Amino acid sequence: MLIDVITLFPEMFAGPFGDSMVKRAIDNEILEIRFTQLRDYAFDKHKQVDDSPFGGGSGMVLKPEPVYRAVRDVLSKSEEILPRRVIITDPGGKTFKQEKAKELAKYNRLIFICGHYEGFDARIYDLADEKISIGDYVLTGGELPAMVIIDAVARMLPGVLGAADSAETDSFFDGLLGFPQYTRPREFEGKVVPEVLLSGHHENIKKWRLEQSLKLTRENRPDLLKDKP
Questions:
Q1: Which of the residues 50, 90, 91, 109 is marked catalytic?
Q2: Catalytic site residue 155?
C-alpha cells in the first residue's frame, strides 16, 4: 500500500512511524509512506498557506490554492496505483471505527490531507472522497488523526502483524471489546489465571473468551451492543 500525507508538519510523523509495527511494514515493503509539504505549493516567497477568514473571526484559515495544487500534484504521481481514496482528517467527518480501518485496508493507495489552524477554506472539500474524525474533541491539527488512522489500517494489511490472526483478537475487530489476556506466571500476588485457559480445550476457551468480551463490552461500552443480536 502507498500512503501520501499532505501536511504542514511532516516531521511530526518521524517518531510514530520510525519505530515498531509501522516501521517494520515499511522495511518489509508492505507499506510506503510519502510526505508532501503543503508550503511548497504556496505562491508567494513567504510560503503563506493561510489567511484571515471572510466575515471576521479569530484564527487563520488554510487557503484553497495551495491545497488544490498539492493534491493535484500528488495524484499525478503514481496515478496507476488504484484503487485509491483521498481522505481529509476533519472533526466534521464520520467517526473512525474498526470497520473503516478494514475498509481502507482494501485500497492500494490512500492520500491524507491534514488541516491546521482554524481549518480549511470550504471549497477544498470537493478534493476528498470522505472526511474522517477520530473523536469528539479538539486537536491542533489533522496530523495526529492521520497517524491514528494509518496505524489502524496498517494492522489490517497482510504480513504486517507477527501472527496472521493477531488482529482478530484486538478490541473492536468484531465490534466488541477484547477479552482478558494472561501469561506466565500462573499465579501473581494471589491472582490466578482462569482454569479454562489452562485446560487445552479450544472450544471451551473460545466460548469463555466470547463471554468475557461480551461482559466487558456490556459493562464499559454498552453502546457497541445496540446493533448486536
A1: 91
A2: yes
Ramachandran area for residue 54 (φ above 0: left; ψ -120 to 50: alpha; else beta): beta
- The helix/strand/coil state of 225 is helix
What backbone torsions phi and psi does residue 110 show, to the nearest 5 degrees? -125, 140
d(CA 102, CA 108) in angstroms, rounded, equals 13
Residue in 10, 69, 85, 118 annotated catalytic: 118
Per annotation, catalytic residue among 32, 65, 170, 174: 170
Whether residue 217 contacts residue 177, with contact meaning beta carbons closer than 8 Å, is answered with yes
pLDDT 10s digits, 54-106: 998 888 999 999 999 999 999 999 999 999 999 999 989 999 999 999 999 99
39 catalytic? Reply is no
pTM value is 0.87
